[in-house]
Write a structure and sequence with these properties.
six-stranded mixed sheet, globular, alpha/beta, about 1000 residues
Amino acid sequence: MKFAHLHCRSYYSMLRGTASLERLVPAARRAGMDSLALTDVGGLYGWVEFVKLCRDHGIRPLCGVELRASDASAVLLARDPKGYERICRLTSDFHLEEGFSLGAALREDRDHLSVLSRDTALLEGLRRETGPKDLYVEIVPLTETLPLLRFAAEQGLKPVASNDVHFLDPRESILHRMLRAIAGNTKLSRLDPSDCAEPERFFCDAEWMAQKLSHAPEAIANAARLSRELYSDWRLGETVFPPFSEFSATEAFFTLRWKCHQGARRRYGALSEKVKARLEYELGVIRQKGFTHYFLVVEDIVKQAPRTCGRGSVAASLVSYCLGITHVDPIALDLFFERFLNPGRTDPPDADIDFPWDERERIFDYIFDKYGPYRAACVANHVRLQPQASIREVAKVLGLPDDEITRATEKLLRFPPKKFPEPWDRILPWARCLADFPRYLSVHAGGVVIVPDDLRRYVPLQRAAKGVNILQWEKDQTEDFGLVKIDILGNRSLAVVRDALESVERNTGESLSYDRFDPAEDAATQAMIAQGDTMGVFYIESPATRQLQQKARVGDYPHLVIHSSIIRPASNRYINEYVQRLHGKPYSSLHPLLDGLLDETFGIMVYQEDVTKAAMAVAGFDAIEGDGLRKALTKKRPGKLLGEYRERFVAGALERGATLAQVDAIWEMMMSFAGYSFCKPHSASYARVSYQSAYLRAHHPAEFMAAVISNGGGFYSTFAYLSEARRMGLEILGPDVNASEIPYLGNGKRLRIGLMQLQGLRRDSQETLILERARGKYLSLADLLARVDLPLSDLKILLRSGSLDSLEPERNRPQMMWQLLQSRGDSGSKDEFRWEASRQAWIPDIEDYLEAEKLFDERETLGLVYRFHPLRLYESVLGQVDCVPSRELKNHVGKKVRMAGWWITGKVVSTKRGEAMEFMSFEDMTGIYETTFFPRSYRRNVPKLNARQPFLLMGRVADELGAISLNVDDVTAVSLPAESIAVPSLIRQ
C-alpha cells in the first residue's frame, strides 16, 4: 500500500494554502501516490474540480474537510457517499449555526466518517461516548509526536501520519505567510507565528515522511491503509432537478404540454404543422432528459414579473417561447434548439432570465419564500486576487503606505518600465504568484439552485454578506456536479423601457404593451441604428458597437442580431472582413463543406453554435461532440480537453479532404470563441430589447433619456448623457422642489433633473419633499420651511443647487440663505417659535453670488454643470485656436487636425507585441468622437489626461470603412481664461 496525504490544503483554503489544484494533483502523481485527500479549511470549495483533475491524472480522489470550531478542530474524511453527505451537512452547520459545536455534532452522528485530529480532548470525548471506531490521532513530523503516540496507545486509537500540507515546496512558505498577513490585514513583520505553518509543512513524498517518522512506522502504514479504505468512485453529472409542486413526472409533463399549446395559440394563432412538429419534438427531448419540472419551475418564476428577457441558449426553445420565458420566435429566426438541449447532452443547461434591476430582489424573495433556505440557494462567485489587487496586498504586507502604493501601481501597470525599481522588483514577482488565488465568496450575479429535498445533501452552504445562503461552488462546478442553475439577473435597460413606456403613456396617452411592443420594422428606428446614433440604447451604445454600425450602415433587426454577437473582442480581426462582405466583397467558404452553413453571416462564424455546426460539417462530429467542443471553448480552464478536441477535429477534417491550411484557418476562427462569446438566441433576445429602447430614443427622446439616467445609465456618465440629450435638441431643466420628482422626468422636448442627482441629499428628505408636495405645491420658501422638517445641511444643498429658486423669484440665493439660517439657526431643526418670528424678519439687501460661484455650487451639489456644456467656459481660449468640430471630422479624412475635447470614456488594449494602447471617446459641443492612442502616443500623452478640463488633441483623421476617428499624436491641456474665476472640477465622471 502506498502512502497518501490525508490532510492537504489547496489554495481553496482561503488565504492559507498556496497550491492550485492544477499544481497539487500532478504533484501527487510525481510523488508516486495513487490517492490524495483534499481537506481544505471550512469547505469543499474546489471539490468538483479536484475530482475531475484526479481522474485525468489517475489519482483516487478522497473527500475531506478541515473544520476549526470554537470547541474543537478535526479533519473529517468521507468513507462513502453517505459520509460525503455528512461532510456537506456538518460544514453547512459550521457556517450557518451560531455557536456551532463540532464535538456535539460528531457525538450526535459521525457514521460514515473517519475523524483525524490532534485535538486530544475531542478524540477522548468521542472515544468515551461513541467508541474508538474510525477515530485517528494525527501524527505530524517535526512536532511533539511522542505525547500523541502515547495518547493513541492509551486510548486504543490508531496513529495516522500526516504532514498537514499547506504548500507544495518549502520555498512557498513566504507566500503562505503573505496570505496570512493579507487575511489578518497586518504586516509580515507583525504576524503571529502561531498563525502560520512551518516551512516543513510542504507536499513531501513517502520517503521524507518515513525518514522523519522513523520512530512511528505504524503511523505511515495506517495512513496508507486508511487511504485505501476511503471511497473514491465519486459520480458527477447526475442531474438533480428542481421540483414543481407535488406533481408526478406524468402529471408534470401533461401540465407542461397543455401550457405550451395554450401559449402557442397566443403566440401564433392557428398552429402550422411546422410549429406543431417543433413543439412535439422539443417536448419529447425535455421529457426524455427529465427537464419537465425545470421548465414549469422557471415559468412559475417568470410570471411573477410582467417584463422579462429570457436570453442565452434557452431562447432557442419553442417551449420557452410558448411559456413566455423568452420573447423571440425560434422558428422565424431559425434558432438551433440543440444548442440548448439535445438527447446526448450530459450536463444540465440553464435558463438566464433578466428582470428589471429594481424588481430582481422581489423575485429572489419569492423563490426563497416558496422553497425555503435549504432547498434554494444562490450560486457563489469565488472572488480572486486580481493582478492589481495582488500587487496592492503584497505591498501592504511589506509595509508600504497606501498613497505610495496607489501612485506606484497606477503608473507601473499602465506604463511598465523595462526595469522595476526596488522594492517593486520583489513585489511584482510575488504578486504574480498570488494572482488568481481565491480570497472569499460572494453571490453570483444571479444563479440560484433549487432541489427537491435539501441542498446540504449535495454541497455545503454558507451565508453571504448580504444575508442569503450560497453554495460553496461557482457556476461551473455547480453545473458539473449536476445541480441545475437558474439565472435571475438584473437588467437596467428593462427598467429603462418600463419607465419610458410609463412616462409616454402618462404624457401622451399612448399605451404600448411590453409583450407586444416589437418595433423592429420601424423605419426611423432602423435609420438611427444604421447611423450608430445609439447612445443610451441597450447593448449597442459602446464606442466599438456604434463604430461597427457606422461601418455596416444597416439597422434592421437580423443584422443587429449579428452585430450584437460579432462585436466581442476576440473577433476584431473578422469584423472588417464581415463589413466588406456585407457591402459586396466576393468571398468563398473556408472549405466547401461549410458552403450554405454560414451564408447568413457571409462565411464568418459569429455565434457559438456555428462552432458546433462547423465541427459536424467539416470533421464529422455528432451534435454531442460538437456541443462539447463549443462548451470547452467557453470554459475558463479548458485544459487538455481542448487539445483532445483539436486532435479529433484535425483528423476528421483531413479525412474529409480538407488541407492542413484549411483546417488551421477553420480552427483559428473557432478559437475566437474562446472564453467570451454568444449564441444566436442570446443575441436575438438582446437585440429585441435594443430595438425597444432604440424606438423610444427615436420617438420619445425626453422620456427615454430621463429613464436611462434615472436607472443608473449604461456605458457613460450622467454628464455624457446630458450632453447627448442637449445635442438631441432637448432642453435641460434644473432641479426644482415644485417640478422635480426623485428620478429624472422627460416630456416633449424637456428633460428635468431629478432630486436623485443632488449629492448628499438624503433619500428620506427627497421622499419627504415629494410626499408633502402631493398636498399642494410649495408657495414660498417660508411655506416649505413650515411644512417639512429637513436638516439645515439638506436645505443648503437644495438652495445651492437652485432647487429653491422658483419659490422666491424676488430674492437671490444669499438672501434665501439668510432666511434659512434665521429659520433653522445653529441646530438645524425646525422651531415653530423661531419660524413664526423669522417669517416677518428683515432680509438685508445682499448682492447675488457671482456666476462662477453658482457654477461651482452647481458642480458641488449635482456633480456636474447642466445649464450649458462646460466647454463654453473656455470659448475665449478655444476661439484663438483653429479647431475642427467633431461633426465636420468626416470632411478631413487623411489630414492632420486639431480638436477640442472633453474626455468621456476609454478602453485600454494590448497590441500583438503586448504594448498598451487606448481607444478613447471625447466630446465637444457638436458631438462625440472616437480617438486612438497608439503605444508611443499612449505613453507620452495619456498620463496628462483627466476628466476635469478640456484638451486640445492633434492628430490625423482616419476612415475605417466609414467609421471616422482621430489618431492622436499630441495632447495639450486647456486652462480657464485668465479673466475668469477658477471653477475647479466642473465635471465629475
